[in-house]
Amino acid sequence: MKTPDYWEQAKRELAERDTVLRELVGRFHGLALGSRGDAFSTLARSIVGQQISVKAAQSVWNRLADRLGSVTPENLHRCRKPSLRACGLSGQKAAYLKDLAGKFLDGTLDCARWQALEDEALIVELTQVKGIGRWTAEMFLIFYLARPDVLPVADLGLQRAMRLNYNRGRPLTAARMQKIGAAWAPWRSVATWYLWRSLDPIPVEY
User: Fold this and answer.
1) 163 and 170 in contact (C-beta within 8 Å)?
2) CA 16 to CA 119: how far, in whole Å?
3) Residue 132 burial by Cβ neighbours in a 10 Å radius (0-12, 13-18, 19+)
4) Among 57, 62, 35, 37, residue whose Cα is nearest residue 47
5) Region 2-21 average pLDDT
6) Is pTM beyond 0.85 here?
7) How confident is the model at residue 82 (pLDDT cuts 50, 70, 90)?
8) Which of 114, 112, 81, 75 is nearest to 96 (CA)?
């Protein structure tokens, strides 16, 4: 796991601007975002984790890794859907993973060029793949590319954390979340990470 070079500057600036984040940065000192550095597994993990808890997603991923030996495009593409379903995947997620593996194998997805793309351009490209919506693309930007300024307002964890920390537990609209988050730019990914920690101190990894 490699911590982004900007992390220390980001958390220092966020702590100066926002009292909630100042407390979280102090509480979770020594922890930081980490990337596994593998584009395929990051996207595959994001698909597995859609609409289920972090704990449940890790359990499914562990069973998948045990069955395949290694979660690679080649191994996933060869694996039959019933075997994937036996790992705890829905039929839809199994189809999404096989489609993702096929696109990596045939070159439709070329991660070598992604570093040069702006955030929104890459989100548009990734969301052309079955099973990858904006949330999954944003997780990829945060966890694989370590982009510093992503605010995933559709993320249930971020919604809950912002509701508890900024609105006394009451719901927030996406527009209100964006307005609160505007003060965190250009470090909204880092702010998001610390707000996730307010709910679960164990960092999620993709």
Assistant:
1) yes
2) 26
3) buried
4) 57
5) 94
6) no
7) very high
8) 81
